[in-house]
Every structure is written in structure tokens, then in C-alpha cells.
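Notebook B, p. 112. Complex prediction, attempt 2.
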Amino acid sequence: MYKIPVGEVIEGSIDFLVDNFSFITKWISTVTEAGIDILVSSLMFFNPMVLILIISAGAWYATRKKGYGLGVFSLLGLLLIWNMGLWEPTMSTIALVLIATLVSIMIGVPLGIMAALNRTFYTIIMPILDFMQTMPAFVYLIPAIPFFGLGPVAAIFSTVIFSVPPAIRLTSLGIHQVPTELVEAADAFACTKWQKLIKLQIPIATPTIMAGINQTIMLALSMVVIAAMIGARGLGGEVWKAIQRLQPGRGFEAGLGIVIVAIILDRVMQQFGEQKQ
Amino acid sequence: MEKVRVENLYKVFGQNPEKGVELLKQGKTKGEIMEETGMGVGVANASFYANEGEIVVIMGLSGSGKSTLIRLINRLIDPTAGKVFVDGKDITKLSIDELRQCRLDHLGMVFQNFALFPHRTVLQNTEFGLEVKRIDPEERTKAALKALEQVGLKGWEDSYPDQLSGGMQQRVGLARALALDADIMLMDEAFSALDPLIRRDMQDELLALQEEMQKTILFVSHDLDEALKLGDRIILMKDGVIVQQGTAEEILTNPANDYVAKFVEDVDMSKVITAENVMVKPLELSYYETDGPKTAIHRMKKTGSDYLFVRKDKRLKGVVTIEDAVVANKKGEKDLHAFIREDHTVVTPDTPANKLFNVINDKPYPIAVVNEKGQLVGVITKTSLFTGLADNMDWQTTQEGEE
């Protein structure tokens, strides 16, 4: 029976892109890798105790209206991570998540704004986002390798693809939700599209955009773990090693480290979203 | 001098608006076009003008196209056909940038639901138009402060809109338009979302401001009382068509058709003046749960009256008189429960004034005006009834003179 060559077409086009453009992606890879190294080594430059205190104090300060719960949690959680000997992989995971999130925001927020303001763009991009979010995350790992080579940059690439949709969706939603009467008032007072965006739509959409960024961080964190399979180091790498060596205890410890980092990031980001309201 | 002139203006919403205009010109009605083509007619063949310093009220029921018409004037909605002249310039022909400039120079707007920017302070809201106009910060703050003072909001500059009452929010809306110093003000149901008493205050203030400013105001309203009070001229709309325009007297004495006649038939003055128009704010209230006789006596002393209305859970409970309060105090009662009289007269805000004459003398204390939720919205004393009537009668006598 004739098989429709879906896979062949995809492979053919990826091969074509790799043959013709991989010099660019390889270059990006080199530069980004250097950036990651600098970030990780500067995180490692501090004595862990100093950094733990700084992060805990930051977490406490960000959530101080809700008491000191998160500050204490951060302190104990990070000390536990350090105690389990997972400090370096944790820093490397945080570095990967930070970079992937930054790239996702830089791509996602402008695309979200465009989707909100342009009906055609919206109808084109929404199904693509559905596709990106339902496609199993592992699949993104495969094409990342030929473009960026095994390593953290390929991991960031697939992480960005996986985690950018909520940033786009919620930015677009936030801008859509700006009451029409306010948009009308801005028009009546002769705003240009740009003024309307800066003075009205983005400030009012900020809490929703922040909620999107929070989701992006959480997705990035979960994807960074999966991306350990293609050479992302960090806590995911520890889990992956534990799977290969069948060390459930070690795997659980690394998993716990991820949970602690996730809770701290999530609570702090939520606070940012609320403050803007 | 003519400030705004609208000539044969059409707005049809839908797939093929030009065809809708053709059908309208052939004499089809809004309903027929909706049935045949599925297109909605917003405004059909509207022509009118407004002179400098004039308040023109555009009136009609909801769906009559009045809000669309006012938006065609600053092109928040683009007309399908026809011309709009603002200060002599046909704005339907302006480019986007010219249109923006025209809005900044000539067209201030006030909205029904205030449309204040929640993330900006009162001052920043007021400055908004000037900021868009790129006036330098010092100058725009000065202009905004002046506008806020004009509307009586001095001292509220740093508050946020959600900290203000509805009436105050709309003052900010008004100040925002005033600060721009445009010569034409478009007011879309500007006072419709306010309580009756506050609405009346705002109308009075707008008239007072207009005395000194002499702007050209286009005011959309569905409220006949408001139209009669504010409008130098009134434009009556139905189904997107202007059915009649003229001064209040012209429309009342000589309705153009049955629709107008029906709209204004209730404007027999003693009927049109209702309890709402002659009531005043209750000076002091007593609270059922918390106040005792001593507090009540103290409050009556302060206002110089010999009664107090008593409220419970925001609803009007009854009246307590000074005699009863003194007796209660002597007996050492801790609360007013046993002394509340419930024989006060209650009317609704839309009770016609002529019915009030029959009951005003029944009781020693004022008539309570209570809304459908049972809340006390105002009181009517003999003084407020007669002065209120006298205020509203002025133009009725003119009208009778003409008959």
C-alpha cells in the first residue's frame, strides 16, 4: 500500500535546512554556549551559602506582603539541595531556564501583541500553537541535534519551542481583554497605534502577560529536564543518569531539587503578576 | 458661527454597506434592509448643524442610532456616505494623521461609563489628551490641574479612578475632555450611569461651566428631562433617522409625527416633574442597630430639625421624632427600637409632582423617596417641593404663552 511520505518530507526539509543553514545555527550554538558557561560560572563564583542567602532574601522581599513563608522555604529548600550535593546541577538548570525563558519572552510577547492586533495573524498562529503544544515534547529534541549539536543549546532550542505558546496566548488574551470602551477612549483622544499599545493596552494586560510568563517558566523547567536526553546538564541530567544506572534514590533527590526550584520561581512570579494589579 | 455640520450622513454595518445606502435612498426602511440583506442600518440620511456655544441634544431610545451618530462626527466609526464638517473642514476626507490632529484640536469626548484608565491617577487621566498631543509635562500638568479645579476635584489628583464614586469619576472624564481645550465636546450619555440626584448636580454644573466656556456640545441622551434641561436644540432619532429637530418648545408644541408625539406626550409639566426632581438629600440619618436616643438628639440638634429618618441595613425603617427621643433618653433607653414610627409617607422617585401636593401636609415630617430596593434616595419637604416646581416651571409658562 502507498504510504504518504509525511516523515520523508519532514526529514528532507530538515536535511535541506541543515545543509544550507547549519553554519548559522552552529554559530548561534557556539555563542550561546559561551553565554551559558559565563552565566553558570558566575553563579558558581559565589559561595553557595552567600547565594542561598541572597536568593532567600530576594524571595522573602518579593512576597513580603504575604509573610515570611516563602523566604523560609527558599532557605531550607536550597540548603537541602546543597546538602544533597546538587548545587552545581541546580545552578546549571536555573541558567538554562533563565535563558530559555528570556528567549521565549522576547519571541512570545511581540507575537502575542501581533496576534491580538491582527485578526489574520491570529487565525494563522493559533492552530500552530495548538500543534506545538500537543506534539509530544520529545519530538522537538530530534531536529535540535543536527542544528545545534548535542548540548545545552539544542536543549534551549527545544525548550523554547515547548514553552513559548503560553507567552503568546496569554499576551494576546490580555490585550484582547482590554475593555473596548477604554480602547475607544484612547482613539477618541487621538492615540496612534503605538501610543495606545504603550499607554493603555500593555499596562492593562500586564497581569495576564505575567501569568503567561509564569506558565512559560514552568514549562521551560519541565522541558529542561526532558532535554537532558540531548545533553542538557543540570538536574535533568542527574535524573537521566539515575534512570540509566537504576538509582531510584538519586533520581528522587534530583527530582526534589527541581520541585524546590519550581516552587520558588512560581511563587515569586505570581507575586509580580499580582503587584501590577 | 457654525461649528459642526452634518450632511446626508449614512452608516450601514455589514458586508456591502454601499448597497445598503442605495436601498435606503430607494426608500427602504431599517427593518426591510435587515430582512433582505442582513445588514444593520446605524444612521440614515442625517443632516444637522451645531453653532458655537450651543448645546445640541441627540435623543432617542436605545438602538435609534444616536450613539453611532456621535461617533461618526469624530470618526470613531467611519461613515459609509455623506459629509461631516468640523470647523469648516470635511473630516471624512482627512488622512489618519490629519484626523488625529483634528480630534486633538477640536473634539473632546466624554463617555457613558466614564472609560477612565484604571492604571493612571486622576491627574494622569486628565493629562491624557495633552500627553498624546506631546505638550511638555509642566504645561500639561498646569492645564490638567485647572480642569480638575473647574470640575471640583481639586485635591484628588493622586487618587486612582476606582477610589472615586461614580459622579466623581465622570467629573474626571469631563476634566479629561476639558483639559484638551477642544472647542467641541461630544458627550455620549455622559450622565446616564449616575444616580438621579448626582445626575441633576452634574447637569447643573455642566450648564454653569458652559456659561463661561461657551463650547459647542453635542450631548447624546435617552432621557427627555435631561434633553429639555440641557438642550438649546434637540434632535430626535428613531431607527437611524432624524425624525425631528428644533428647540424644546417646537418639538413639544408641534410634534412632527406620532412617534415624536408619543415620546413627548407625558410632558405635561405637572407630570414630568417627579418626586426625583424636587427631592433633596436627607441631612442626617440614624442607624437602627447602633444609635441610641442620645445620638439621635445630638444629630437633630446639629441639623436643627425635629425628626430623623432611621435606616436599617440600608433600607428605610421609619422616623423618630425629637419628642420621642427626649422621652426615650429620660427613660434611659439604650436604643431607638421602641420609638420608631412607621407612619411616614413613602413615594417612589417617579411619582408625579401633582400627586405630592395631596400628601405633603399629611404628616409633620417630610415625604420619604424610596427606590425599588427600599433605600432612601431623598426627602421632600414643602420648601423643596415648591422651589423645585418653580425652577422647573420657568419654561412651561413660556410654552403656555405661545399657545
